[in-house]
Fold each of these.
Amino acid sequence: MRKPGRHFLQIPGPSTVPDRVLRAIDNQTMDHRSPEFGVLGRRALDGMKSVFNTTSDVIIYPASGTGAWEAALVNTLSPGDTVLMCETGHFAWLWDRLAKRLGLKPELIDTDWRQAADVDAIQARLRKDSAHDIKAVCVVHNETSTGCTSDIAAVRAAIDATGHPALLMVDTISSLGSVEYLHDDWGVDVTVGGSQKGLMLPPGLSFNAVSEKAKAASHSAALPRSYWDWDEMIASNKTGYFPYTPATNMLYGLVEAIDMLNEEGMEHVFARHKRHARATRLAVETWGLEVLCRVPEHYSPVLTAVMMPEGHSADALRRIIHTELNMSLGSGLGRLQDRVFRIGHLGDFNDLMLLGTLSGIEVGLARAEVPHNKGGTQAAINFLASTEDAQNADRAA
Amino acid sequence: MRKPGRHFLQIPGPSTVPDRVLRAIDNQTMDHRSPEFGVLGRRALDGMKSVFNTTSDVIIYPASGTGAWEAALVNTLSPGDTVLMCETGHFAWLWDRLAKRLGLKPELIDTDWRQAADVDAIQARLRKDSAHDIKAVCVVHNETSTGCTSDIAAVRAAIDATGHPALLMVDTISSLGSVEYLHDDWGVDVTVGGSQKGLMLPPGLSFNAVSEKAKAASHSAALPRSYWDWDEMIASNKTGYFPYTPATNMLYGLVEAIDMLNEEGMEHVFARHKRHARATRLAVETWGLEVLCRVPEHYSPVLTAVMMPEGHSADALRRIIHTELNMSLGSGLGRLQDRVFRIGHLGDFNDLMLLGTLSGIEVGLARAEVPHNKGGTQAAINFLASTEDAQNADRAA
Amino acid sequence: MRKPGRHFLQIPGPSTVPDRVLRAIDNQTMDHRSPEFGVLGRRALDGMKSVFNTTSDVIIYPASGTGAWEAALVNTLSPGDTVLMCETGHFAWLWDRLAKRLGLKPELIDTDWRQAADVDAIQARLRKDSAHDIKAVCVVHNETSTGCTSDIAAVRAAIDATGHPALLMVDTISSLGSVEYLHDDWGVDVTVGGSQKGLMLPPGLSFNAVSEKAKAASHSAALPRSYWDWDEMIASNKTGYFPYTPATNMLYGLVEAIDMLNEEGMEHVFARHKRHARATRLAVETWGLEVLCRVPEHYSPVLTAVMMPEGHSADALRRIIHTELNMSLGSGLGRLQDRVFRIGHLGDFNDLMLLGTLSGIEVGLARAEVPHNKGGTQAAINFLASTEDAQNADRAA
Amino acid sequence: MRKPGRHFLQIPGPSTVPDRVLRAIDNQTMDHRSPEFGVLGRRALDGMKSVFNTTSDVIIYPASGTGAWEAALVNTLSPGDTVLMCETGHFAWLWDRLAKRLGLKPELIDTDWRQAADVDAIQARLRKDSAHDIKAVCVVHNETSTGCTSDIAAVRAAIDATGHPALLMVDTISSLGSVEYLHDDWGVDVTVGGSQKGLMLPPGLSFNAVSEKAKAASHSAALPRSYWDWDEMIASNKTGYFPYTPATNMLYGLVEAIDMLNEEGMEHVFARHKRHARATRLAVETWGLEVLCRVPEHYSPVLTAVMMPEGHSADALRRIIHTELNMSLGSGLGRLQDRVFRIGHLGDFNDLMLLGTLSGIEVGLARAEVPHNKGGTQAAINFLASTEDAQNADRAA
């Protein structure tokens, strides 16, 4: 049976792809060895540099984000290398698992999955590693499974404080394009990104931004690699081409999406995400529900994970909302399965889409008979009414 | 400056065109004399018969709805003919004006623009017309400028009660596909329809559904006509073709839209519109604002016109909502200019889109400092939560 | 059964719609009363002025070309007015028929349908009309049914030579955007155009370009009109809006198409069409077939009608080519039915598309066992190889 | 400067993506964990099984074909393993290079790049390998750089004749969906495929079809792997889902493309490619040029590589054709650089597109002053006219 109206895709990615991006992808595939392609390739690569805030190299893979994780590791490390990871949630845990499968020795710093990376613990651990066995520190910028955002500049400072030479690798798959990110200024060695969240594209492209130090490390890294190898990519990319067939149509979408971010203004994009996250938390609190992230400084601008009252199933709620209200919410992952639902408020999103989303959750809570106070949406309405978004303020000025 | 997220097109038509329909229109134009075209043409024509609930002929014009109005008149009437019209609002007034320009003598039954057609007045007027000077009675089914819906079966009964031979012509431009309509059962002679409202298409196609009596009248009607002429259309349409170049790509969209209506089920479509209209009125009443339509039996399922408090400008409110919240609302037309705003809740629409819409109005009322009580959206949330829509009920059953 | 590959739509319109135009039409419909719409409307109207080469007003109708014909007549003439028409082919004949249905008195100047408008006959007839009974001279610029193009400047000169005050009306439906056309310089009073040929759009928009003299005539013209009325259009258009709902999505396509014409350069567009027409005639002549147009000065740049050898059916040939080769060719219209086939080489077209088209005809001629000499495509290849198109020449310069 | 008309993308892949596939990809991204996604996933996976003619598992990677090559090796082999490869051309050479980078020991059987895989040499080499050091035999089915197609059934027979246990791996990136391929019947262990050739999609998806023997080998294979790992994929795929975010929009396109192949009929698709290849060779021979492939049994149905006369540059010819005629041809790769040009005649292609292509080459040869005889296109026309394609024959029957 057809469900009328637009689907509300409120998972924390893939986010709703704007029509302009879909229409760009919908163009006829071109010859990836033609003169025109080189222009496209350079536009995509240069655009991604600006998104990462780096003057170094960015690699674009025809692959999911998971592939770009793998690329970060195989280009810089050797079998048996120790890497230090912070288990901020499910995706950090998956990265750890990936590292093990590649023959690395990840060491996990635990958390309760309700906060971001533990900067002090990282610093303490590095300080103990006088032998410099740890070759890399891996942190998830925005943990998509919990809605906690780590302070990457602080991680960098912590590493620097110890004088430890480990590489810093950061996963920005769910933050890139939605949360401010400064690859160069924060001294990140490898940043991992994906297309389907803040970049407003379908899944299918992923990225590495690489520092000079990371490139140097790659020359002695012994893990076998070919598809993910940076060297050939960087060489070929100089003129805008790729060493193997790129995902041409996704690149059409990528340059369009970067144009759109710049038209809005990156600072407006970041402010918009923060404001929506705050409105969402107000709604959640008004309902009397608990936000999973328990450290206000770690609140994610792109998603909010909400804990279910004891004895209530998040998946049952999500099922009702999906079936009856035509909205997808994120499920609890790993140890959070059925315990939380996640609200994505990222990408090409605005006040009315957010209020429709919160309204739908409020209807769903009632339908699923989840104990809650009414008025969450109203609280968000009041908040949004009283705070102009940065873009409108600029427009008026 | 780019406005992020989806635009909320909440005017009472054109309504938001679903992606499936846009994608259908986006297909390559075909030869309108090819064998394949005949199949398309018949699908479109037969589909429209089912939408009008008629076994008689439907004409599809490459034209706006205004053209189909003109077609209804020039095919059935002669210069100087008297037609009886009910001035239910701006569009009824425009139809009257059109009739005058064509050399007809329209006679207007007044209303205060806050109710639907006055059935008793029609009956009284016809009864007085013993000479049968009145050749046609013209009624707007759903008056888009006021949000009042007329009872066409009652108009038919009123005409029949007088034994008057006048043709019955009905404008369904903003109701067709959203409100139940029975061309044959209600004994309508010419129904006028358009593509851009309940049919979920862009503007550019319009329709006449014609009774046998109307066709008979066309043979003696003396108004000059060519583009709008039914005869050649009906003859050519038998095999699915058109006497002049049709709007082929719009026809692609039309057959897709009709498929979508049938997939949802017409009875579900109608129930959905009524439920959304009721939720909207609840919000308006909670805000302490007044619905323009003052007769509950006449409430429109497709739009709600809302009166502004004395001393407040509807256009100022609409401007803020458009600029700051990325939503279009309908303006007050004619004598209602700046006095009302109109909320379209028609076409490819669902609970969350409605709640986003109402939320946006509530934010706008606050921003524009229009006196109102908070909680309108909340009232709509509560109503929608407690009433399942017919489609979900059927799905569960 | 699916036919693989692209369909070759080689009728003389609708022409193949370029992807850029389809993608533009595929955008979400906007509010036709929004501030953004006014900008779009003015872009479309100003763009069309440049296409017609006029500084006067252009009207855009949500209608097929036939509607714009009707508009030209009802805005300027009164019941019983005499109009002089040249029967250059089927479309001129249809225009005559339309005039009769509107209550005008068309007077037809015959041709054998193998040449363009007879300028001398027009002049002679006007000279005889000392009473100035003739109110308008109507000429088809490019007769789509025959492939003959009339010399409009010469018609103007002929009228001027007689001092006759008749209006000059010209149908450019199949020439506009493909053949040079100077509405102002040639002193045309009403030019009629359509979207689906040289303008590279689907059918559904049509145009009137109107002189001051035509506007003056409209003030005393007594034919009833409303949908087609210029006055309200021109008034509303000043700010980019329309008096009734416009075909918004087609307007998206129109501004894109005009951009594309300008990017190529109108002089290149015209030269391209002429060169392709010449290559086509070379092929036809090499096959030993006869081009319908028998006056070289009248050869159409947009289509070539080809006469079938005695005893052979054009429709049988077209059917084979359509079924087996996935190409649509134009049929013989009216008295030419089954006697000619028409090759459209207009709109968004290039050398390889033309050579594919000619190749397909050559294969079809063989399959249908139509007597012909081989080598027509080869002749076109040789011609195209030896003559650079104007755009390439400019690019090299 | 805009080039009018459709670009002819006649490289041997990516092939022209049909509108239906582009429109499918253009749909809004869905939640890859939703119930609806599982249905899509299974349709894609089952469809690919039918394309490979296997009842075993197919893996779909969000990656280019190069990634699927890597996947085939890392899932089945261990560091230092010897693999036997046939250097049929540039892509076989690239595969060899990839194997080395992964730490394998490829052993190359030379060819002159003018023929397909040397079955006798493979058999001889395996026979000598009594220690069974060789773990896999890798063959490119259709060598995209040369236009030679290997006989995979014969390779299988050769292996069987020796009783050697090596796995058989086959690259079908440029043949899949265009040339008959029987994964199960031919006893292939790993088949590698890509989306952007016969499957008519943009690049961005690639495939492994895997035998039970290959899966068994994967359990002891020691090369590190995670992104490419089959186990998790196969487990997750059972219900239509993926272990990491899939390229959802490409999957929309994939199911549409498979539907299109089936609508045409796979046997018609294969016959069409063979017929077009033969027409192309006739043109080449008529021009007096030499087809690179010198063994008629090895002629590729999907592309034809053409040798340039001594002293003439293939790239200069290609540049003229690209700039002046809006067509892309494939370049000579590796040792063939500037020595050959390659004509792709694969994917969503038909007689008229082929004749446009050949015509364009003939114009280009003249423009570039490459010595040749006229009449190649004419030869192709004559051939196509006299041979009905299989689909038409079936339609008539």
Amino acid sequence: MPIITENITREKKTETDFQSPEVWTKVTGKAVYGNDFKLPGMLYGKILRSPHPHARIKKINLGSVEAMPGVYASLTGAELPERPYGIVFDDELPLAAELVRYIGDEVAAVAAVDNETASKAVEAINVDYEMLPAVFSPREALKPDAPQLHEKFKDNLAWERNLLRGDSDKAFREADVIVENTFTIPSVHSTYLEPTVCVAADDPYNGLIIHTAVQSPDAVRVIIAKALELPLSKVRIVGPVMGGGFGGRVYGNLKLYMIASLLAIKTGRPVKMQLTREEEFLVGRPMIAAEMHLKMGFKNDGTILAREADIVTDNGAYSAQAPWVSKTLSERNDSVYHIPNIKTRVRLAYTNKVPTGQYRAYGNQAANFATESLLDMGAVKLGIDPLKLRLKNCVKTGDTTVHGLKIKSCALAECLKAAAEEIGWYDRKKGYGYGISAAIHASGSLVFDKNFRGAAALARLELDGRISIFSGEQDYGQGAHATFTLIASRVLGISPEMITVYSRDTLSSPHSIGALGNRQTTIGGKAVQMAAKRLRELIVLTAADMLEDPVVMEKGTLRSASDRIVELPLVAYHYHSLTCGLSLIGEGRYVPEPSEYDETGYGNIAVTYSFAAHGAVVEVDKTTGAITVHKIVAAHDSGKIINQISAIGQVFGGTTQGLGMSCYEGYLFNKGEVANASLADYRIPTSLDVPDITPIFIENEDPEGPYGAKGLGEIVQIPVLGAVANAVADAAGVRVTDLPITAEKVYQALSGWECE
Amino acid sequence: MPIITENITREKKTETDFQSPEVWTKVTGKAVYGNDFKLPGMLYGKILRSPHPHARIKKINLGSVEAMPGVYASLTGAELPERPYGIVFDDELPLAAELVRYIGDEVAAVAAVDNETASKAVEAINVDYEMLPAVFSPREALKPDAPQLHEKFKDNLAWERNLLRGDSDKAFREADVIVENTFTIPSVHSTYLEPTVCVAADDPYNGLIIHTAVQSPDAVRVIIAKALELPLSKVRIVGPVMGGGFGGRVYGNLKLYMIASLLAIKTGRPVKMQLTREEEFLVGRPMIAAEMHLKMGFKNDGTILAREADIVTDNGAYSAQAPWVSKTLSERNDSVYHIPNIKTRVRLAYTNKVPTGQYRAYGNQAANFATESLLDMGAVKLGIDPLKLRLKNCVKTGDTTVHGLKIKSCALAECLKAAAEEIGWYDRKKGYGYGISAAIHASGSLVFDKNFRGAAALARLELDGRISIFSGEQDYGQGAHATFTLIASRVLGISPEMITVYSRDTLSSPHSIGALGNRQTTIGGKAVQMAAKRLRELIVLTAADMLEDPVVMEKGTLRSASDRIVELPLVAYHYHSLTCGLSLIGEGRYVPEPSEYDETGYGNIAVTYSFAAHGAVVEVDKTTGAITVHKIVAAHDSGKIINQISAIGQVFGGTTQGLGMSCYEGYLFNKGEVANASLADYRIPTSLDVPDITPIFIENEDPEGPYGAKGLGEIVQIPVLGAVANAVADAAGVRVTDLPITAEKVYQALSGWECE
């Protein structure tokens, strides 16, 4: 397996370095983002939000709002059909009808000539509320006498899962060593740079067009068409350039899109709506908070026997993807090591707080923090080196894990060794703490839609010999366009500069589940590979027809047995003339093997799996508790790396975000009110906080992914949390089990308020 | 043959009435036209034009123009490669390099923050000219000692054609009656409502995108990519709604697009440019002016023996489509009647005036005026009723005309009779003048590109069971979208409301020659018909696969032999799941029989031919010469009418424009300067000038067109001119041979300055 080790300073481009020319538009400020977008006659919409965590709307007094100069329309839930929608459960409405369930809940909206007028109009709306008791802690919420949020969900239990593999009771009885602890992680926001914005326009010819950048436009389209009772093909999503998403914007902001659409339909004019940063914190569906009580049992030789987990996750007021995220959080991590016996209970509770969702690694990063912390606690108790403990138990190629995941390729042991070596695991410097952690993540998840597992792509030969790729997958800053370009370039044997990827218009792209579940490279890229392959075949056939002789294609030139040649533009023109206007199009349809899982969820749920091990080196000031993270080594088995510069970018970004979750970030609530709803108060790592990050790629070819590649975008964030937590514990001699690990918490632990 | 006679007042919709929902967006002011379109950071461009008809640029003093606040860039020909471009000849540059050749010639351009600043900057540019002698009359221009416009074109002869069929010298010797006369027609502008506007934007990812409404975006794209040396697929034309074109905007305004593009590339910002109405008159390529000397010979029984023509057309300073228009003007009209012997000389001369182009009927309307006037003069001399003379000589189904046109369907005689009857030809009211005239026009011209005669279309089944049609043909107000919708609706047996036609983006539509040569219904519609047919087959096959039984499709429902049914959305989802994201797409490729014509141009040059006869009833005040046109009857053989309301609209509009050319319109020049470059001075008919217009459709099914349809859009304008000219001559007793036929000219003729 070739190993690529990269340092932050790169002096020359490698062969697989490629950035889509789109990057140029971004760094020069020429890219057109959603907020740059204007339509003639466009209005601006603003939303009135609930100031109360739980209340009944007695009356909305619009007063003379609609008569205010510049105001075009107001909108309240009362005028809309009560047709709930949602991602997993249909538990929300575009605007509150009777109840508000958190501070920020959408109550009314206004469209006006400009943002100022709209804001003033919204402020002029007066709402009579009847206060209701509220509940903020998920454990409290699950109690029978807690205030109820949704009639349909008794005891505020949004979702529950009890999972049993093997016989954990027996295993724990047989265990030599048992460790257990409770770990907590707060809600964290993916803080994409660009606040969500959309422009909705509606007319009888085009139907409803929503101009917005979102990770999964097709999924958004389906939900909105259903919720607003519009024909699906009369809802079109057109995407400007996207200012980040990190999984937090798979569905963008459905409520914003719907309110803008309803205002556009009502006024007959386009309506632009943009969230403020504060609103982003309220309604941007941050990752679920979780309280995880874990217990692990070992044999004296370090063999892991069992794990038990009692997990409660905080749904907030509405569900979004929280059930799916809770599921991943509760189980994915069980497949990093051989754990034959598992007993897990996970409950998702409604609370009168910000509704939650997901962020990059779909809860797996939270689980990593808990499990990898507990593993180190086990290693201490067992007196076994934490690296050796991990190497003893970690999964390998050919394994089927406890939940049925089929491991077709795995270099996890190599990742652990490489990360350990690079941080100097066996050559430690005095005064520093060392931590290590491992992760698995689905690459190309197959569980989002039973009838739709794969992806399709089209590769079109243009009249100038260039290639256009149409894909439903989305480039939201992660570099999918560049990766697809490189894949097509390899298949066709032509320069990446000759290829353009288009993906941001639901009218012209194949449908797709979108940018989630690590689908882009593994599934989307595979479809692109197949489309390019089919196009290559069609080009060769057409050229053979032209030259009346079999041909071979090399570097964009078609050569016949008798050495006659024809170039791509002529092939394109030939077909174009024959068909009077059509182009050669290769269709790629990647339909993966179905994932067969039983009612307990046992089965193979992804095309393949990525692995990683991170190592961290930290220093802790024992007087103040202050933590300095010096180095993070990120060793990854994401199969063959398609686009090295982009892969390195993913590692730098994801590791930094993981560091944010480890040491900096988290929602603070005060009776349901977000106390740090601004980027001044909600602290994310700045450039000065970023340590030396060393990416290592173990290029272990995957049999399924395109050119042996697997996903990387999500897993980069996962093992940081465990590695940093373990390194801090190693340096401080005490362990913090409540994220983020701040100086205060370390200080408190050092002061004896909490210790291992 | 069913005959539809329609009056201007229609009380109820007929079965074939359908307007695209796009019409709704227009009448409610919600349609987004080019000038509504804005991009962030957009600049505004203005052009400095030559004030001289012919001069050498000694020096362009930009002075401190680029330093003016708000000015981003200036552009002159000196900084551009001298790479001439053109439609027929490459005889122009985006900006003048050394010479200016007419008042209005583009000399320099500026991009600034707004139109005002750009205009001021342009005014601040100082140009030193050396005056050169100019020539304004085409006949003068052809003389050897005339000032020369282009080195490559000796004696200012842009193009010449000498055509001989049969033996006209012999025929004239044998003729019993000979008439001859000279007819003139000035340049006329198609005065589309919307002045030409474009927004050009360029970046390394998207390439050059020109947002502009144009009849033939693909043709524009090819010319611009070549002229600016850009890869073809890196030039994209995206069309907003178009405010008319009438053939005058087949290529839009190439120079405007190029200058905007060059300024966008130079500044790195989007640049909007819009012509003023005055500029439209200068650079909007009005139809060529022509002087036609015609001679016709008859036998005493009215049989036409021969026609001789000496025609000089006025090209202005640059060529555009003028050679092609001159060709059509000089010959198409020979095929209305059997004329066995033809001798034609046509010369196109460069002059120091506004460059010309085309308008709706491609010169055939000018020829109609001349030939049909001369025919009536022949009838008088022969003592034969003009209607009978026409009926005796007119072509019929199965004929091959003197130039080789193969007449597959023809109801010209029926049109003549219907028009005559409807105006009361044999039941004349005293004091009124009656005129009649006939026309042929190509329907689906095949001569624009030897390698590209037909059209392609795609019909896609959407997930909601609706159908999307993608076509490269353009709806620029003529109703192509509605016609295509009706065709697809008939093929698929579903309501037109379930169908949407998309055509305005070169990225997602098949390539096409565009909206010219009466291609839209006959060729583009045929491709749509074939695409819908193929989609229907695919739907039936897919449904049969689902129901495991053969199925039939009726009204959008698929029914198996065993009476199980499945609806279109389910068929769409089935295919969508099977392919993971693709849709059922029917490809339609209409590749007409090649037109085989020899080097003299003899051959069949169109898919089929449309016919028409118009009748006019006028009154002339013999004291003042004032003309009142009371009624025009427009009898058309355009085969089966696909969309009746749209067909009626074409007749009303085209007839009114023909009336404009007959009695109102024409450029006035004063030493090369346009004396009436405004809609105040250039008089087009207003609603008060429009007479009673009665459309009659002789529904003679064509064997080739879709559902038997033929083109209508251009021919509607043609026979008006001859009919009105003949009616005025009939009423006044004198004939005006110089268009427009104004009261002054009639008065002059009545005063004896000119008479028959």
